[in-house]
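Structure (tokenized):
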């Protein structure tokens, strides 16, 4: 494993703060919307409009990041995330939450391309998937604490305290973001040397479009599950917010192992092979939801499904980095994340429309079917051996 240098350590700290902000708010967000008067369809609307915002902004933000610099985008991400969540503390109308949630999702578009570009610049061909996995550990640090703390505070003190704490954590991340070195001038010089290349070139377009399709399908499936899960658990088992938060905390504990293990396995045994295994087993885990009537058993099933999903994160990013030269990676990461955010937009809509009866398992079966479509698509990917990949 490559030792984390100064840039990666700073990025890790910022990532923990951004992840904590997200995990304090997002897992139980559907319950908050329901509490302030949103129906299940309106709930799905608020979440999908927010995700649509990030879908539309992700690709141009990847290109603009190369122009204005990673430091500026990291600062902007921390600022917009903190301000949007802070303003949520002072509203009790679900319609007013729509533009605030749009701003919160827009912050993702500033953070993700910068984060991925910094990691890619510091990786080598032989450790790419593993380094992405190591850096992904920043997400579960916030994810282990955030959902439980958010659920406890929402029940005992109120949602206002949840949003204020989340805002404070995000705004604190501005300081380490300012410490990131910007290499915009170097990148522009590199761009001049590779001026003739385009992401539409045949050698790039096939892999990029396949990864885009995978991201749409996988995230449509899992975003639908994540949106309907807290409502389902509340309707069917009358669980407290803290216990519902435990579902997301459990999955984030597992995330520690899947990111380290997934990155190592992908680098050692093949990235495409790992993606195929996950595409085969994840739908089975999601579909088995209908077989159990115990929330404890469902907690285990959700963690398994989430585990297979999260195992795919390092190899997808590593394949993308292998395929593209440095100049095109900002745009490539932006396009890849556009597919991801499109899935996060479609998933809640599909789940909300299918959740016709409280406690219905139909959205989970639909999610399993959508995820299963990833298996034949994954066969189209070419898996470059690590020692032959370009840097």
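Design, position by position:
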């Amino acid at each position: 494993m490559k030792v984390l240098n100064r840039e990666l350590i700073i990025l890790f700290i910022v990532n923990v703060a951004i992840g904590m902000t997200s995990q304090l708010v997002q897992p139980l967000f559907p319950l908050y919307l329901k509490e302030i008067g949103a129906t299940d369809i309106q709930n799905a609307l608020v979440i999908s409009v927010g995700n649509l915002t990030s879908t539309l902004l992700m690709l141009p933000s990847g290109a603009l990041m190369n122009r204005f610099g990673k430091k500026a985008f990291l600062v902007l991400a921390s600022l917009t995330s903190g301000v949007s969540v802070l303003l949520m503390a002072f509203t009790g109308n679900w319609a007013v939450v729509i533009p605030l949630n749009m701003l919160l999702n827009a912050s993702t578009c500033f953070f993700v391309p910068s984060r991925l570009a910094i990691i890619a610049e510091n990786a080598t061909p032989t450790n790419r998937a593993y380094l992405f996995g190591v850096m992904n550990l920043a997400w579960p640090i916030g994810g282990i604490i955030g959902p439980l703390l958010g659920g406890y505070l929402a029940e005992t003190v109120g949602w206002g305290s949840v949003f204020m704490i989340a805002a404070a954590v995000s705004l604190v991340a501005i300081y380490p973001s300012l410490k990131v070195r910007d290499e915009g001038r170097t990148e522009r010089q590199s761009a001049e040397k590779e001026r003739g290349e385009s992401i539409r070139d045949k050698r790039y377009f096939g892999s990029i479009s396949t990864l885009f399709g995978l991201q749409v399908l996988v995230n449509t499936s899992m975003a639908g599950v994540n949106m309907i899960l807290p409502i389902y658990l509340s309707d069917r088992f009358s669980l407290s917010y803290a216990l519902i938060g435990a579902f997301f905390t459990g999955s984030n504990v597992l995330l520690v192992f899947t990111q380290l293990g997934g990155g190592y396995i992908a680098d050692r045994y093949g990235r495409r092979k790992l993606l195929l295994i996950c595409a085969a087993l994840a739908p089975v885990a999601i579909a088995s939801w209908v077989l159990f009537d115990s929330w404890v058993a469902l907690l285990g099933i959700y963690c398994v499904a989430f585990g297979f999903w999260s195992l795919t994160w390092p190899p997808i990013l590593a394949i993308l980095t292998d395929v593209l030269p440095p100049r095109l990676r900002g745009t490539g990461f932006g396009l890849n994340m556009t597919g991801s955010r499109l899935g996060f937009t479609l998933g809640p809509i599909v789940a909300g429309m299918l959740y016709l009866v409280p406690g219905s398992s139909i959205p989970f079966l639909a999610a399993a079917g959508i995820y299963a479509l990833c298996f034949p698509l994954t066969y189209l990917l070419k898996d470059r051996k690590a020692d032959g990949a370009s840097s």
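Reviewer-requested clarification: The chain has one domain: 6-177+199-385. The CA atoms of residues 130 and 263 lie 4 Å apart.
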